[in-house]
Design goal:
Blueprint (H helix, E strand, L loop, with lengths): L9 E6 L3 H10 L8 E5 L6 H11 L3 E4 L10 E4 L5 E7 L2 E7 L11 H11 L4 E5 L8 H9 L3 E5 L8 H8 L5 E3 L1 H12 L6
Parallel strand pairs: 1-2, 1-7, 2-4, 3-4, 7-8, 8-9
Antiparallel strand pairs: 5-6
Helix pairs in contact: 1-6, 3-4, 4-5
């Protein structure tokens, strides 16, 4: 089986209640040469820097808080600051970070809806979407837009979710291609990056 990861891909992740541990499990299994990962995690602003540092110490990839207009590069995980929406924007042949202090969406800033909507618009078929544990419906509608734009979407299963609200909403909206247990999420994403067929 080919092991080379597609360098043009981008991974976007939404998470909320239970997401701190779910992200640790997922990211710890991603190799250091993985495509860039952008994350909107519902979290108070004051906790984001220490959370990013903790994830960075537990992962092969570099985990950091996203900064305005920085180039999105492989091997890096970009965590939305607690005070801003995180989006992807086109920059030359690649992508860069866009942060916004626009009003909350679905009562959240950062909102998963904002990140996923930008992925649908900008990176489309080069995107893998991952919806992890969380309460509510944030991101479900935009994840469907991602699917319609050619992205491939995964959602965490109920058994491994602390709260199945956001994954359930994404599944019910028709946005999700596969429902995957948390402990297999990284393996499945890597399979998609290597061109493995859905199963």
């Amino acid at each position: 089986m080919p092991t080379k990861l597609n360098p043009s891909r981008i991974i976007v992740v939404g998470s909320s209640t239970g997401g701190t541990e779910a992200l640790r499990v997922f990211l710890a299994m991603m190799p250091k040469d993985s495509p860039p990962i952008l994350i909107a995690q519902h979290m108070p602003e004051m906790f984001v820097p220490s959370f990013a540092a903790r994830l960075d110490g537990a992962c092969e990839m570099r985990v950091k808080m996203a900064e305005q207009h920085e180039i999105i590069s492989p091997g890096n995980v970009y965590l939305a600051p607690g005070h801003s929406h995180l989006s992807i924007e086109r920059h030359g042949a690649g992508y860069r970070v866009s942060l916004s202090d626009a009003p909350p969406v679905n009562r959240h800033r950062p909102s998963i809806e904002v990140l996923f909507k930008s992925a649908a618009k900008v990176s489309g078929p080069n995107t893998i979407g991952v919806m992890l544990t969380g309460m509510g419906r944030d991101g479900a509608a935009a994840m469907l837009e991602m699917r319609q734009a050619g992205a491939y979407n995964l959602a965490q299963d109920e058994a491994s979710s602390v709260v199945f609200g956001m994954p359930r909403a994404a599944i019910e909206s028709g946005a999700v291609h596969e429902v995957v247990a948390l402990e297999r999420m990284a393996e499945r994403v890597l399979g998609l990056l290597r061109g493995a067929a859905a199963h």
